[in-house]
Every structure is written in structure tokens, then in C-alpha cells.
Design a protein that fits this description.
Layout lengths: L1 E4 L7 H4 E9 L7 E4 L14 E5 L12 E8 L4 E7 L11
Antiparallel strand pairs: 1-4, 2-5, 3-4, 5-6
């Protein structure tokens, strides 16, 4: 399951985020990180490079009908980051990665 962490003026997600610290899922406490893309990509068309990470669907804890996913982590300067966005769960994710 791909998730983009968007950059903003003064915040370069690909260089600022400690990728190994990222957790994502139903509550934001699910250790579900699979990998992050090595190359950054502008996913929202604002001209800034964004960080794209992939998570094991079966480890996210999502249930049919859930409508929000929560991402938590740290910057390389050990500052907490958290974000949430809409998700649409169409089937119950498998328990395996």
C-alpha cells in the first residue's frame, strides 16, 4: 500500500524523514513499513519532491469500512510527525504481508 509524505516549503520530506521510524495503519501504531522508494517524486504537482513509502496491507490493521489511515514517525532531527488521510477499504486485508 503506497503512502506519500508530501514536502512543503521548508520541509523536504525525502531528506527530513527518518524512513525507518514510519508506522502506518488503522491507529497509526501498526509496524507495517515494507520499504520506501529511493527516488523522490512530485506526486501532487507542486514542484516539490515527495517521499513515497509502501506498507504491508495485512499489517495495517484496517477493517472493512475504515475510512482513515494514520501515519506516524520521526524526522532525522527526532521530531515527531503525524498525518492522517482518507482511505477506502474494499476488502478485509490479509493477516500476512
Amino acid at each position: 500500500m503506497p503512502v506519500a509524505i508530501l514536502s512543503a516549503p521548508g520541509f523536504d520530506a525525502p531528506s527530513a524523514v527518518d524512513r525507518a521510524s514510519l508506522i502506518f495503519g488503522r491507529t497509526g501504531d501498526e509496524a507495517s513499513l515494507a520499504f520506501s522508494d529511493r527516488r523522490a517524486k512530485d506526486v501532487n504537482g507542486d514542484g516539490l519532491r515527495d517521499l513515497i513509502c509502501h506498507f504491508h496491507t495485512g499489517r495495517t490493521g484496517f477493517q472493512l469500512g475504515d475510512s482513515q489511515g494514520i501515519l506516524k514517525g520521526l524526522t532525522v532531527d527526532v521530531i515527531s510527525i503525524e498525518g492522517a488521510d482518507l482511505v477506502q477499504i474494499l476488502t478485509t486485508p490479509s493477516e500476512t504481508p
